[in-house]
C-alpha cells in the first residue's frame, strides 16, 4: 500500500514539474512578432522617377513569374556572390523564355553595414530594375525577414534563399519542376535538401561539426512531430502563391526555427511538401553561433510545438493579408 502511495506521489510530483516547465517555456519562449513600422512598407529601386515605392501584398494578384526573397543581415561582403549568381540565371533563362519576369527583394534586417548600398550599386551597375531593397528599422531575425518579404511578394511562385549563395541558384529549376508535378489545387512547397545526394549527382560540402549538429537537430525535430522531411533547415525553399497565402499569414517565429513552423503549417493545411536535392557548400561568415543558437532553436521549437498542441495558436483556414 505504501509503495502505491509513493508511486502516486512521485507521479503527481513529476506531472507538476512538467506542467510548470511547460508553462515557463510557453510563457517566456513564445515568439512575439512585431508589427511593421510605416517606413517598412516601402522599397528602394533604381527607378529614376520613383526610387521609393510602396510594397505590394501577398493578397494581390501575381504580376511576375517568380519572387526571390533574400533575408540579409550585415551581408555586404557575401551578397554580391549571390546577386551575380541570380543575374546569370535570369540571363540564361530569358534566352529560352524571353518573357520570364521576376522580382528580387532584398530584406535588409537592420544591418549595420552597407548591405543596402551594395545591393543598390549592383542594381545600378547592371540596370536591374527588378531589384527591390527593404530596410527593417529593427532586426527581426531571418524568419521575420523571410516572412515580411513573402507577405509583400507578387510572384506566381515565391522562393527564399540565403544571402551567402551557399546553394547554386540554378537549382531553382529542379524545385520548380517538382513543384509543378506535385501541386494539389495549386498548392505546393518544394524545399532544397542537402541530405538526398544518394538520389542524384548533386554535391554537398559541409564540416563534420555541422553535419553532426544537423543530424542531432533532425532527430529532435522528428521526436517533436515533424516527420518525413530529411532537411528542414536548408535556406532554399519554393512556394506556389496559393501555398504561401495559407502559410505565411499564420507565422509566429522570426528566428532560425521558422523553417520548422513553415512545415508544420503546411502539414496542418494539407499542402504537399516535396524535397529536392540541391548543390550546396559551406560559406564562411555565418551569423549563427553553434552553441548559443542551437540551444535557442531547441527551446523555440519546443515552444512552437506546445503552442500549437495546446491551441494557443490557431491556424487560419483562409488566406489573409
What are the defining features of this structure?
9 helices; alpha/beta; two-stranded antiparallel ribbon; 11 strands; globular; about 325 residues; 7-stranded mixed beta sheet
Structure, explained:
The chain is α/β, with parallel strands linked by helices. It has helices spanning 2-29, 79-96, 115-126, 142-151, 172-182, 208-223, 241-247, 258-268, 290-309; strands at 42-44, 52-54, 64-72, 102-108, 131-135, 155-161, 189-193, 204-205, 236-240, 273-277, 280-281. A 7-stranded mixed β-sheet has the order 5-4-3-6-9-7-10, with helices on both faces. A two-stranded antiparallel sheet has the order 1-2. Helix 3 (115-126) links the parallel strand 4 and strand 5 (131-135).
Could you give the order of strands across the largest sheet?
5-4-3-6-9-7-10
Helix content: 40-55%
Largest sheet: 7 strands, mixed
Query: What would the average pLDDT be, to the nearest integer?
Result: 85
Assembly annotation: single chain
Number of helices: 9
C-alpha end-to-end distance: 61 Å
Spans of at least 5 consecutive residues whose pLDDT stays below 50 are: none
Order of helices and strands: HEEEHEHEHEHEEHEHHEEH
Which SSEs are present, and which pair or pack?
Layout: H1 2-29, E1 42-44, E2 52-54, E3 64-72, H2 79-96, E4 102-108, H3 115-126, E5 131-135, H4 142-151, E6 155-161, H5 172-182, E7 189-193, E8 204-205, H6 208-223, E9 236-240, H7 241-247, H8 258-268, E10 273-277, E11 280-281, H9 290-309
Helix pairs in contact: 1-9
Amino acid at each position: 500500500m505504501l509503495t502505491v502511495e509513493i508511486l502516486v506521489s512521485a507521479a503527481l510530483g513529476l506531472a507538476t514539474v512538467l506542467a510548470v516547465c511547460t508553462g515557463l517555456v510557453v510563457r517566456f519562449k513564445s515568439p512575439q512578432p512585431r508589427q511593421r513600422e510605416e517606413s517598412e512598407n516601402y522599397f528602394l529601386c533604381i527607378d529614376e522617377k520613383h526610387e521609393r515605392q510602396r510594397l505590394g501584398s501577398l493578397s494581390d494578384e501575381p504580376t511576375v513569374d517568380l519572387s526571390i526573397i533574400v533575408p540579409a543581415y550585415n551581408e555586404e561582403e557575401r551578397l554580391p556572390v549571390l546577386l551575380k549568381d541570380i543575374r546569370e540565371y535570369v540571363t540564361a533563362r530569358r534566352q529560352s523564355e524571353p518573357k520570364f519576369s521576376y522580382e528580387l527583394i532584398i530584406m535588409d534586417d537592420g544591418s549595420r553595414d552597407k548591405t543596402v548600398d551594395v545591393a543598390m550599386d549592383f542594381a545600378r551597375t547592371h540596370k536591374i530594375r527588378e531589384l527591390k531593397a527593404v530596410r527593417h528599422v529593427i532586426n527581426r531575425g531571418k524568419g521575420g525577414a523571410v516572412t515580411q518579404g513573402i507577405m509583400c511578394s507578387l510572384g506566381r511562385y515565391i522562393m527564399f534563399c540565403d544571402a551567402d549563395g551557399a546553394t547554386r541558384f540554378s537549382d531553382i529549376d529542379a524545385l520548380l519542376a517538382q513543384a509543378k508535378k506535385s501541386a494539389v489545387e495549386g498548392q505546393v512547397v518544394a524545399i532544397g535538401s542537402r541530405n538526398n545526394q544518394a538520389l542524384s549527382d548533386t554535391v554537398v560540402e559541409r564540416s563534420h561539426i555541422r553535419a553532426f549538429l544537423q543530424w542531432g537537430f533532425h532527430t529532435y525535430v522528428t521526436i517533436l512531430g515533424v516527420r518525413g522531411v530529411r532537411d528542414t533547415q536548408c535556406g532554399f525553399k519554393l512556394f506556389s502563391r496559393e501555398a504561401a497565402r495559407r502559410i505565411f499569414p499564420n507565422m509566429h517565429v522570426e528566428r532560425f526555427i521558422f523553417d520548422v513552423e513553415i512545415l508544420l503549417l503546411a502539414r496542418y493545411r494539407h499542402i504537399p511538401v516535396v524535397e529536392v536535392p540541391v548543390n550546396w557548400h559551406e560559406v564562411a561568415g555565418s551569423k549563427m553561433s553553434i552553441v548559443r543558437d542551437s540551444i535557442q532553436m531547441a527551446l523555440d521549437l519546443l515552444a512552437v510545438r506546445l503552442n500549437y498542441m495546446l491551441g494557443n495558436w490557431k491556424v487560419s483556414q483562409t488566406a489573409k493579408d
